Amino acid sequence: MSNLGGCTNTGELFWRLEDKQVASLLLDGWFRESSPGSINEFANMKSILMGSPGIGKSTLLCVMAFHLVFKHKKNVLLYWQLTNVQEENCLLYLGYEENKIVYFTVKRCKSDRAVNFYEELGNRQGFSNVWLMLDGFRYEDIPEGVQTFRMLATSQQVSLKSQEQTDAYCILLPCWSKKDLLSMGSLIYKFTPEDMEGRFYYSGGSVREFTYATWEHIRRVMDNAISDVADYSKLLSTTSSTFSDGSQGGLLCRTFVEKTNDRSQYLARRHWQQMIDSEYAVSGLSVRLKSEALLRIYTRAKNAGHGALARCAFDIYLHRLATDNRLKLFKAEYDLPERRKSDQPRHFKVEQVALRNGGAFCSGTSSDFERDLVAWRDEETFTYWYPWCDDFPNIDSIVKLASGSGKKNNVAYLHFTIARKHDINEKRLEKMNEIFFPDHVKNAGETDAPVFIAVCPDEESCRKFVLESQPEVLAAKQTCQVFVGYYQEAAFAGRPTYREMHWPFCSYRLQNLTFSH
């Protein structure tokens, strides 16, 4: 079956809860008898199995075909539309002749030939006794003569007209969770934990990409998908197609159900959630995804327990808000938990941080940043900086503040966090102060001291957040004021941002782009 494009290369299956739910729904629609108190609304209807590319729809279709033959004694004709270099469309018949199992395959089977086989079998056995199953076809492009199928598996969007909804229904096969992919990779492919983490970083919830031979292969496929997106505004749009549009860009958006244990959600589109779950893809699309899309990715990843993806989306989302001058920050002075009794509430007096509006600058790495920060510090038109790397220690960005004390304004070192706890490094803050608050500036007494703010997703998280360890926090408080805070998205008033007007391409960060306001 694998050389026909319909099953796994290993011949082994990892049976997910999602597969079980979909198979149960299909069998229920095909075979359950209606009763006065329980009508089978899908009886005698076509089943359209939808889902993102590369998640196992073809495999499930084959499983259902074998189940129909060996459990229910049906005659099944499968017709695949393939895109492999070695093969074109393929046809497989599996059924009974004089109570004996017979089968035949036809490779490079054009549609007119498939129609002839179907008609011949139907005329000989009765069309109601031949179950036609299609894979890989667009619903709108199914060849005439094979449109009376029982099941279609497709990655393409299917919009049934009102009159068609009495004849067919759609069911979603959701993408893979990280937990299931790691279990499958360990049990079947014997991947190491480190290897699987790297694979999932690139692939997200696609089992096909996850099981490619090398990381480089997965990355190359994802690079092609990112560069192939024609309209970035439609990625994760609530009004655009949920599935592939026929381009490589369809590989990026994955579709899930809200609750995998609720069978009804597999049939109701209002419960289908779309997201980009490849951390590599989210990073590569960082300047092109809308802030609303980034927030949806963060929320979905957090709820699904994908910590790394949630952190990635959260960081990029806050960079986006700050770059577009839409970030509102609130802070409260951080008090050590050890200095409070267990029954005492945290001291929490919140005030808004006065941020300066201006342009954003992305430059520097964890080992080479001093000259970039000095240049940014001295350039008045730039008010927000963040590094050209994802491993910059202790902080994620720096923002210039508007002074309210009568002194010269200085900066806030921002650390974005979705974790319950995080450490703080006094030595790194001292290194930053050598640039922004050197001794001669400090001794002159004319400039506000820098501040450190750990930025949480919301006020509740902010109240529970803990900096570690106590000695480091006490030492950091000698270097600058230490705050814990949270963000809000400010309504943007005025003309469009530079990005909205020009929308430049970048593979991970914003590069050294200036943003005029």
From TrEMBL:
InterPro entries: Crinkler_effector
Protein name according to UniProt: Crinkler (CRN) family protein
